[in-house]
Amino acid sequence: FLKFRKQRIKLANDCKSEWIGVPQGTKLGPWLFVLMIEDIKVTNTDLWKYVDDTTIAEPVEKGEISNIQTAVDELSEMSNRSKFQLNERKCKEIGISFARYQPQFEPIYINDNEIEVVKTVKLLGLNISSDLKWNCHVSKIVKKASTRLYFLKQLKRAKVAEKELVIYYITCIRSITEYACPVFHNGLSKYLSIDLERIQKRALRIIYPFTSYMQMPLKCVTYHPYMTLETLTTKLFEEICSDPNHKLYHLLSEINRSAVNLRNSRKFNVPT
User: In whole angstroms, what is the distance from residue 78 CA to residue 249 CA?
Assistant: First the structure.
């Protein structure tokens, strides 16, 4: 099952046979992969693992020297020990600083190859910028959603029922704007929210060309994008507050136990 498996590759008139690992699509495959990466830990840094994506973060105080190269070397050594190979071409470095003069650090190397320094990086479907603004992310998802509007037009021309068109919109278009929205929703400016709403306006204009936008929500059971994102974000927050075992529960501030009655009471203390 795991040994002496070969895969034949034919390109033009050339054939190559190479050793391959676990068969893809098996139930055992993901568990074997988890066992291989479970012991990967790097000292003095924050490390997050999600399937084959690994992220390392290091807070550096003003005037101090970064030790991220040591952490990367340690990670590379552990990967080689587990017979994993880091793809340095896909590894990126991003720095987040709000200082007037950006700190300059030594370049990071993996296998003697310098890691590219970028201003924006895509992490688990989110486009994170060095200034922690969401302009780039919104621009990307608007562009992606706009390409799917073309298929909505084709379905409309094929005289697909309006009910099915709404299902396609909610499933294939609106789901793009709602993905991981609790992360970025509260950081959206008004004009970015308007950009997201334009996607819905264009889609509903295709589905209901003779109905005004204000009447459409009553007809196709859709909602203002801002309200949808607000609802999803509030729902996640309530789930975190109600479950002490939630993975994100430790991020909450301390509960406000003050006995003083205020006009606007707070459940949590303001972070200091």
Answer: 31
Least Cα distance to 256 among 272, 268, 242 occurs for 268
Kind of pairing, strands 92-93 and 53-57?
unpaired
Q: Which of 124, 106, 123 is nearest to 115 (CA)?
A: 106
pTM assigned to the model: 0.78
CA–CA distance, 236 with 184 (Å, rounded to integer): 13
Residue 142 CA to residue 193 CA, distance in Å, equals 11
What letter represents residue 90's amino acid? K
Residues across the chain: 272
Residues 165, 168, 171, 177, CA torsion sign: negative
Tokens of 30: 């993901």
* Token output for 263: 């006009």
Burial class (CB in 10 A: 0-12, 13-18, 19+), 207: buried
Q: Rounded CA gap, 236 and 34, in Å?
A: 27
Question: Tens digit of pLDDT per residue, the chain (272 long)?
Answer: 556 666 667 777 776 666 566 666 677 777 777 777 777 788 888 888 887 788 889 888 888 888 889 988 988 888 888 777 788 888 899 998 888 888 888 899 988 889 999 999 998 889 999 999 999 999 999 999 999 999 999 999 999 998 899 899 989 998 998 899 999 998 899 899 989 889 988 998 898 888 777 766 555 555 566 677 888 888 998 999 889 999 898 888 887 777 677 676 777 777 76
The domain spans of the chain are 9-129, 134-249
In this structure, is the dihedral angle defined by the CA atoms of residues 124, 126, 127 and 130, taken in order, positive or negative? negative
Output DSSP code: residue 63: T
